[in-house]
């Protein structure tokens, strides 16, 4: 059984249909990427999973439990953590305080302490800036903080919305390396929404191509990288 399954999801904004019969699966331990142009419906897919944008029809199942009509806070409690587009850290809180917010639902103090140490090992820059306010960090450092805050929840699945957006190339490379490392070493399942199709497919196990709110292609990441249509439309080659 897949960890996350979307079955024929249809989502609307008023009378405008944003998602059209979206069906996909994310197996435990995978990195699955959803690629597509701006406005294709990638963020709406994540918002539908998290219960922020209501689904009009279809079902969303997490670890065998139907979460389609569930309140967003209940979905978080079941183990979904989202790193939203634009990071949305708490700018007035320190790095450590932001990370503490990620562990808000947890009560295992020793586990939280260990995870905090692991996050600082993963992102040494954050360790150096642990007492610094989040709003004073660079864009790349804020993205590291947003990902780390989500990891502090110990989620069943990590949803990443455009983690490379607005970052310098050196940070983009580093962020994708870290996502791969999180998946390999922490065994964290990742659902990655990304406009940088090449970088996303390089670290993913499988991918879906979203076009005008509908899934156009689905295959292994390796096959999508070699697909002529994908290469012309999304890889610029």
From TrEMBL:
The keyword Hydrolase does not apply. SMART domains: AAA. It holds the Pfam family ABC_tran. Keywords: Amino-acid transport, ATP-binding, Nucleotide-binding, Transport. One of its GO terms (molecular function) is branched-chain amino acid transmembrane transporter activity. It comes from the Bacteria. GO terms for biological process: L-amino acid transport. Residues 4-237 form the ABC transporter domain. Belongs to the ABC transporter superfamily. This is ABC transporter ATP-binding protein. It comes from Teretinema zuelzerae.
């Amino acid at each position: 059984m897949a960890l996350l399954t979307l079955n024929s999801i249809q989502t609307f904004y008023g009378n405008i249909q944003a998602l059209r019969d979206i069906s996909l699966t994310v197996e435990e331990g995978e990195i699955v990427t959803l690629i597509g142009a701006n406005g294709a419906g990638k963020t709406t897919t994540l918002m539908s999973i998290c219960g922020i944008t209501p689904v009009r029809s279809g079902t969303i199942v997490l670890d065998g439990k139907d979460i389609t009509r569930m309140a967003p806070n209940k979905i978080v409690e079941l183990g979904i953590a989202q790193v939203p587009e634009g990071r949305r850290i708490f700018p007035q809180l320190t790095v450590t305080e932001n990370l503490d917010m990620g562990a808000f639902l947890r009560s295992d103090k020793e586990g939280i302490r260990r995870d905090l140490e692991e996050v600082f090992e993963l992102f040494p820059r954050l360790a150096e800036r642990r007492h610094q306010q989040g709003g004073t960090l660079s864009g790349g450092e804020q993205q590291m903080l947003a990902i780390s805050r989500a990891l502090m929840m110990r989620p069943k699945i990590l949803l990443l919305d455009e983690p490379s957006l607005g970052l310098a190339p050196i940070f983009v490379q580093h962020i994708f390396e870290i996502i791969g490392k999180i998946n390999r070493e922490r065994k964290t399942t990742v659902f990655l929404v990304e406009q940088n199709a090449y970088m996303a497919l390089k670290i993913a196990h499988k991918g879906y191509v979203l076009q005008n709110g509908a899934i156009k292609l689905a295959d292994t990441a390796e096959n999508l990288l070699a697909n002529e249509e994908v290469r012309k439309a999304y890889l610029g080659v």
